[in-house]
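Appendix B, record 7
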Amino acid sequence: MDMEILQDYLPEARELLEKAQDDTLRLESDPGNDDVLASVFRAFHTLKGGAGFLEAENLVNWTHHLEDLLDKLRSHTLTVTGPMIDAILRGLDVIDDMLQQLANGEYPAPGPEELSGIIRQLAAGTTPVEPLQPTLPACTAPEATLKVSQRATADGQAGLFLERADATPSPDTGSDEISAEEFEATLDALYGTQAPGYAPPPESQCAASDEISPEEFEQVLDQLYGDKAPGFDTEISPKGAEDLPVTAAPGNPPVASVQTAPAPSPAAPPSPTSQPAAPAAVRGSPGTQETADVTLRVDAARLDAVMNQVGELVLLRNRLSSAIGSLGEENEDMLRIAREVDLTVNDIQSTVMRLRMQPCKRLFQQLPRVVRDASRQLSKEVALEIVGEDVEIDKAVVDALSGPMTHLLRNSLDHGVESPEARQAAGKSRSAKIRVAAIHLGDKVRIDVSDDGRGIDSQFVIQKAIDKGVISAEQGARLSEQEAVELIFRPGFSTNDQVTDISGRGVGMDVVKETVRKLRGRLDIQTRPGLGTRISMEFPLTMAVLPVLYLRLRREIYALPVSSIESLLDIQKTRIHRMSGRTVYRVDGTEVVPIVDLGALLHERSLRLGSEPIEGVLTERGLFMVSEVLGNEDSVVKPIDFLAEQNWYQGATISGKGNVVLILDANALVNHVLDHSSDPTTKNTPCIGAA
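Structure tokens (predicted):
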């Protein structure tokens, strides 16, 4: 296996696979779209060609079967049906597994024989008795066979006739079945060399097997594409290849001979990281030298290394600014250098950040398949709407959210969306609507997953949580409606009593919450019983640099992410109250939030209002009491690997003065306060990893 070819083949193959799946799903709603049919066919054809260069025989054979089926569909010999769509999608899953085996340095194993047989039957125009079931049925029904014969049509032309016949062998012939050789002979009699896809063999010999030599393969490519074939190089192409004529098959539009022409210059080159690489322009063609290399594939590890180096540069910039600011007397030259360094580092940071940005389309492209399969399994009618595919976000978010997005959709389908009958009885349309949207919000991106289903009953969730031992009855009585709804994110919690292929194991939603936390995002859920549910996730545009606010807690310095902070407050004693065993702060006439005393949590000694300086930092979940707010700065987060997985810190950073500072996890601290606020034995018990 040529590893260089493999490294080039795998990224392109995965892009083709994703495109083929999108187009196949489009075929389900628009089966007569010739452009989409041709696109899927080309994907399988290209996948097969690349696999042939890698000598991945099983992948070649598998894509060949799918290519046969698509060839019949695009020539309208067959029409698109539901079983065909199912077979193609399952065939794409097999190709995905084979590509993973290639990525691991192994030749792919053969695909499942049952599915292979079904695909071959569909391509032959035979509907399987039990399509897409684990047990493969016979090629034809047990009580009949298919008989192929050549007869004259009404207008006197030769034609092939396919008919069902009794399975009992004829006493004259012994069997109505025909062999592969007889079928080929019939095709030759009908079409001769005009059959679709026919390529004349070399004059020197007529091969006895179905395999073709590399020379024959090259000749076919030259006839089809000439010098327009992907990767064609005029320096090494056979002479005169572009002048070979291509004979059009009956019923197909003629193909003109291909001539060498300069590749058109694109109006707007795509982003290097967010768009697939364009085919290279033909070398040696006039006018193509300047546009030949508009894109470049870069290994993700190299890009991550550049981002880490930019992070270190940001830290050095901060230390330089701090050092110059601490000089006893101002030096205009040093101040000017510091400002120029600051601008340059900002530009570099912005450029590298854009290199890592990818469109949300890459994150959303698997969702139609998820909805299609789950809705069929649950016998529900669902329409999926996707908005904001062009919104760009950091590559780390796109990579990490693939699994959580699947969990959210499956959860919405299983728990949120009602059956068609129940929706109709409630006065709704039989078909439910699930909406996935990506929205750009300044320095953040919000991703919403919403449905118009039954919503979430908070009392039902509380009772299920008590029954499953997730919370006690006393804790359930103190929960607000919003806190009750958020119980669905607890590990091990599920409202299903039975485990199914879709849900019931208590995993999924907790994975969503943990992933959002690791990505420094914000998770919010809004629901209205009978009307639907919306889950929102907000993420920073870049994961490389984190703006933080430095806080002083007595003699120690901590940091909080700026993205989690709403405002700074002067704490007034008259606004502190005790409700349901919790200490809360009344922000205004309507908003009441829990108080997080960092002194009690981190130092095991509460801050004393009136006896020592105290300032308040209001976040979306609670009010943090600290000794002093120092200021904000861009930081680079470093993981703390030696702490337990459940701790109170997002990581650590180095301040402008060169000190190591712990970055607090606001959500983890508020959750700890809410869980232990009424328990006197744990009120001042620090969490694992507390200072």
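Remarks on this record: The CA atoms of residues 312 and 636 lie 8 Å apart. The chain has a mean pLDDT of 75.
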